[in-house]
Design goal:
The complex is a heterodimer. By secondary structure, chain A is mainly β. Chain A has strands spanning 4-7, 10-13, 19-25, 33-38, 45-49, 53-54, 62-67, 70-75, 85-90, 97-98, 102-106. Classes of the chains: A mainly beta, B mainly beta.
Chain lengths: 107, 120
């Protein structure tokens, strides 16, 4: 199975900051990567698909980049509602796998 | 807009079979691919498996020997069965639609989740 390693595992930031989260795949996955945001007690919500495509209805401050083994999720100007846990997930091959998550906290 | 509603037993004893159902509203179960995903308390997400309208499935090898996912087009539902549960199967279980264009690209619609606890 393809392993996805996110860094950092947790991150403290302030409203208005720009933050980046990275996701590294154990083997090349082309652009078959999605990013999700999860808030406590809620299911995940897709933000980015195909590594860099913004899901409809998601604010443009979210962006994704990368291909192959290295990927990045960026949030350009943190808003209070962005403090959550973020997961990357690959669709390159079965079994579909998720990163371990990055918890974004308010500084 | 497709919405998912899920239900099933929330308390199980070791060796019992977990059984969950997910109903599709605002769309047809025949038009999409469907998955089950779980999340142990305080932990990350694990894909369990997928099914399409014709009943073709793929399962996570880590669970394959115990998992069955099925679809009932007459009821517009799909279901998960996980046999011989242990405490390690305690988790929130989500049903989700798996978007497919040229290939899969996102779990785009999620059910609210069902907490399943295995206790002895």
């Amino acid at each position: 199975a393809i392993q996805l390693t996110q860094s950092p595992s947790s991150l403290s930031a302030s409203v208005g900051d720009r933050v980046t989260i990275t996701c590294r795949a154990s083997q090349g996955i082309s652009s078959a990567l999605a990013w999700y945001q999860q808030k406590p007690g809620k299911p995940p919500k897709v933000l980015i698909y195909d590594a860099s495509s913004l899901e409809s209805g998601v604010p443009s401050r979210f962006s994704g980049s990368g291909s192959g083994t290295d990927f990045t999720l960026a949030i350009s100007s943190l808003q209070p509602e962005d403090f959550a846990t973020y997961y990357c997930q690959q669709f390159n091959s079965y079994p579909f796998t998720f990163g371990q998550g990055t918890r974004l906290e308010i500084k | 807009q497709v919405q998912l509603q899920q239900w099933g037993a929330g308390l199980l004893k070791p060796s019992e079979t977990l059984s969950l159902t997910c109903a599709v509203y605002g769309g047809s179960v025949s038009d999409y691919y469907w998955s089950w995903i779980r999340q142990p308390p305080g932990k990350g997400l694990e894909w369990i498996g997928e099914i399409n309208h014709s009943g073709s499935t793929h399962y996570n090898p880590s669970l394959k020997s115990r998992v069955t996912i099925s679809v009932d087009t007459s009821k517009n539902q799909f279901s998960l069965k996980l046999s011989s549960v242990t405490a390690a199967d305690t988790a929130v279980y989500y049903c989700a639609s798996l978007r497919f264009l040229e290939w899969f690209d996102a779990f785009d619609i999620w059910g609210p989740g069902t907490m399943v606890t295995v206790y002895s």
